[in-house]
Amino acid sequence: MRPTRVTGPALAAALVLLVGACGDDTTAEDPQESASESPAAEPVAPLDFGTEPTVRAAYKNAALRAVDDDLITMVPTVLPDGWTTAGGGYQPDPQWWRMTFSAPTGEVMLDQLPGTAEEVLADQQSLAAQDDVDLSKWGTGTWSAWDHEGATVLAYDLKGSTVILQGADLDTVQALAQSLLPAEDSVSQDG
């Protein structure tokens, strides 16, 4: 498979789409009405990789800084219906890119760290291996899958880094994985 290359303008366009998706939603919803529509699963604590980057709603500069630091930063091209972006953050040492989303099934996280999935997940005792997920149709290939106390974790090795997605179930994290776009080798960025 040929690697995907995205220039600064394409990254900026993808980030603009995401910024639009995380706008202020002023419509109020009756919490009791929502609760009665579908039973909510008990949230599972996400995998702990250490002191994570600070996540901010305005994350464009963090994404561009990660790209400048040679981390192939993954961002969704478009979010599934009903999803919003909570924000993103980057820290250079240890290198770590994070985005958080709100989905109908709960919080979803994208973490990207240097190393292979085997190295990044080595200390996570709560994982049980599941069948791999083939997302070749969406341009990435095969993702390894795990159960984490009832939640789903997908991992994908990408040129010296690992993308880790966490969410309530396979459909949720797979929907995010299908929309991801690597932003690399940007020549110049505005913003």
- Fourth-level CATH superfamily: MucB/RseB, C-terminal domain
Principal-axis shape: globular
Please describe the biggest sheet, giving its number of strands, its sense, and whether it closes into a barrel: 7 strands, antiparallel
| Share of residues in strands | 25-35%
Number of strands: 9
CATH topology: Phosphorylase Kinase, domain 1
Radius of gyration: 16 Å
Which residue ranges are poorly predicted, with pLDDT under 50 across at least 5 consecutive positions?
Answer: 1-38, 184-191
- Name the CATH class: Alpha Beta
Quickly count the domains. 1
Strand adjacency order, main sheet: 2-3-4-8-7-6-5
Walkthrough of the structure:
By secondary structure, the protein is α+β, with helices and mostly antiparallel strands. It has a single domain (8-22, 50-183), classed as MucB/RseB, C-terminal domain (Phosphorylase Kinase, domain 1). The chain has five helices and nine strands. The chain has helices spanning 8-21, 31-37, 60-68, 117-120, 170-179; strands at 73-76, 84-92, 95-103, 106-114, 127-134, 142-148, 151-158, 161-167, 180-183. It is globular, with a radius of gyration of 16 Å.
